[in-house]
Input
Amino acid sequence: MFELSIVGEKSPVEIPAEMTEIVIAALENLAAGHHVSVLSRDEELTTVQAAEALNVSRPYLIKLLESGEILHRMVGTHRRVNTDSLLAFKARADARAHDAADSLVQMSEDMGFDR
Output
């Protein structure tokens, strides 16, 4: 068990050891001003929830769903987004963004802008 002390609380909160890394990462991201979402892999998301998790507009998310980038299913007239597919898409998008940033840095170094 891991104990987390919260200012204003009488006793620390116990957190299972397997959750320690997740809680610390979430707290560090929140402290840095980043957005943190907790998603259950067992649940499907509405299009509003999925768009919020990706920080994109709902219409853009619908385009991703319809193009097959992210798996979903129809429940009547409503779309339900597969959480694993959403997280895999986010990981791919984050990797592409990271690669693009690395390329820009390399280009600026090659052009001598790093001096």
